[in-house]
Amino acid sequence: MNSESLPPFRLTDRAATRIAEITAAEAASAALRVEVLAGGCNGFQYRFDLDHAAQAEDIVIEHLKARVFIDPASMDLLAGSELDYTDALMGSHFAVRNPNAASSCGCGTSFSVA
After folding, report:
1. 66 forms bridges with which residues in the sheet?
2. Confidence at residue 1, expressed as pLDDT on a 0 to 100 scale
3. DSSP state, residue 3
4. Which band of pLDDT confidence, cut at 50, 70 and 90, is reported for residue 74?
5. d(C-alpha 5, C-alpha 34), whole Å
6. Count of domains forming the chain
């Protein structure tokens, strides 16, 4: 696979495995919706929800047995990003590594762009 065919948003194997575990208990069409919303401490914040149907304009990212839905407006701010999953003593959570973020908040869900 050359770099031109890589998706603009990637899932790590850990994130894909966790999404597949979460959605396995739901309907076969379940996926994780990743959105960027105005708000948070730095201007934008990530939102993660389960969704059962992609909207007509959604970008659908698939990796291993996981599916992620992203709307086009959110994808503009997520282009080149990677979704990871951390399972640590201090808590488990999804984290976005976003090269478009100029700064981020300590909470890990809020960011600003330059």
Report:
1. 63
2. 39
3. G
4. very high
5. 21
6. 1
Write down the pTM of the prediction.
Answer: 0.81
Domain that holds residue 27: 3-113
* CA-CA-CA-CA torsion sign (48, 94, 107, 90): positive
The C-alpha atoms of residue 47 and residue 35 are separated, in whole angstroms, by 5
What CATH code is carried by the domain that includes residue 88?
2.60.300.12
Q: Rounded to the nearest 5 degrees, what angle is found at the Cα of 113, between the Cα atoms of 108 and 114?
A: 140
Q: In the block, which residue shows the tokens 């909207």?
A: 55
Q: Which residues pair with residue 101 across a beta bridge?
A: 113
* C-alpha 110 chain-centroid distance: 13
Above 70 in pLDDT, residue 26?
Answer: yes
